[in-house]
Amino acid sequence: MNSPKLRIKSLHKSFGAGARRTEVLRDINLDLADNEFVSLVGTSGCGKSTLLSIVAGLQDFDSGELDIDGSPIMKPGLDRGVVFQSYTLLPWLTAQQNIEFALKAAGHDRATCRRIALEHLDLVKLPHSANLYPSELSGGMKQRVAIARALSYRPKMLLMDEPFGALDALTRHQMQELLTQIWEEHRLTVLFVTHDVEEAVYLSDRIVVMGIGPGRIMRTFDVDIERPRREEVMESAAFMDLQRNVHKAIREASRRPEMA
Length: 260
Prior knowledge:
The chain has helices spanning about 50-55, 95-105, 110-125, 140-150, 170-185, 195-205, 235-255, and strands at about 5-15, 20-30, 35-40, 65-70, 70, 80-85, 155-160, 190-195, 205-210, 215-220. The protein is an alpha/beta fold. The protein folds into two domains: about 5-80 and about 155-260, Rossmann fold; about 90-155, no CATH class. One of its GO terms (molecular function) is ATP hydrolysis activity.
């Protein structure tokens, strides 16, 4: 990969100081190509969400290099859209206004904000929900609005931290299919954190398995399953074999070094 979209080199991160210092990420090296969909998986406490938060510019790090398109990441920016498990919608604004709020921050005028917001509500299949408030939306609908908002200002990367983790199984599958369709149409780089290996295999081009004690990259898997993907692919032998191999790698990576 000659010119990665995202480049992480020798990244280290710890919390606390002195005797209370805890190393949470050690020597993370990871490149993401333009338009690549990469999932981070691993047991709780391996640092997946911390790493994504650092890429988002929401946390600092101790040492290493981190850049997007060759420019160092120092703080949050409109070049990265972020979607969390919690919907983070402003409850006093409608679905349309939540998206417009982000677009105003990006410097768009009122008419442009309205046009782009409605376009993106249509993109996530919520064209008739523009005037509804978050309290009037289901969990899946709230997450659709959050995705629409994150995509509306045309970020270079989409960072997603367990975005479907709070949804029921049926809604989760619907959201996975929606995200796949959006990604196939618009082709942007995605870094996706999940505990669900089936979800990682279904969505990703590459899966990165992280281990604990401290958090570090243990293995990567290329997902050589033809796109476009639909739910039926989950029943294929290739899909199930890869799912088993990733589960095995996570079990092995969950053993702390002193246990190995």
